[in-house]
Amino acid sequence: MQVLVKYHIISTDLIQDGKFYHATYTTSNHIAALDISDLNNVKRLDDLDEVQPTIGLHYIKVTPDQKHILVTDYFIQTGDIGLINTPADFKTLHIDFNPDRSLHFNRNVDFTGPYTNRGGAKPHSAVVFDLTGPANSYYC
User: Fold this and answer.
1) Which class for 56: exposed (0-12), middle (13-18), buried (19 or more C-beta within 10 A)?
2) What pLDDT shows up at residue 115?
3) pLDDT score for 131
4) Which residues of 12-37 are buried (b: 16+ CB within 10 A; e: fewer)?
5) Strands 103-110 vs 91-97: parallel, antiparallel or unpaired
6) For residues 68-78, b (16+ Cβ closer than 10 Å) or e, as one string?
7) Rounded Cα gap, residues 132 and 50, in angstroms
8) What Rg value do the Cα atoms of the chain yield, rounded?
9) Residue 110: predicted pLDDT
10) For residue 75, which of 32, 48, 58, 129 is within the disulfide window of CB 3.0 to 4.6 Å?
11) Residue 102 · residue 83 · CB < 8 Å
């Protein structure tokens, strides 16, 4: 198994039952997906050789229904006044889980186009709400 040693994990989230772990590697533009249901036999569900459709990803959040994750593609850019200038494409990825809980990249929201009159938007994190009914309201 390959290991991403030189890259930093920025954000993580677990499925509610604690069996699956997801992490964002900002500088390597990669989302890790691990089956941790057996800690003596952790299984990697992502492919380190796959080029994922993300640049400068940051925040990751599992949706309340446990069927998707949201990832924001913007960490931080300080320009000339700082040291951190991570490239980003300013998108929010809506990623589905395959039946084996690996990731299925199929849609995103591009925040650069709709807000050009204000310099574009820079999504940094997300809160996910389930508002299907008053008895089921939930956020994470």
Assistant:
1) buried
2) 72
3) 65
4) ebebeeeebbbbbbbeebbbbbbbee
5) antiparallel
6) bbbbbbbbeee
7) 35
8) 16
9) 80
10) 58
11) no
CB 71 within 8 A of CB 62: no
What pLDDT is attached to residue 22? 92
Q: Are 77 and 84 in contact (CB under 8 A)?
A: yes
φ, ψ for residue 80, nearest 5 deg: -70, -15
Instruction: Judge whether 69 and 133 are in contact, CB under 8 Å.
Output: no
Token duo for residue 67: 């069927």
Q: What is the pTM of this model?
A: 0.78
| Per-residue tokens: 117 | 């009159």
Which residues neighbour 69 within 8 Å (Cβ) at sequence distance 6 or greater?
13, 22, 31, 60, 61, 62, 63, 95, 97, 103
- For the chain, residues with pLDDT lower than 70 are 1-7, 75, 119-120, 129-131, 133-134, 136-140
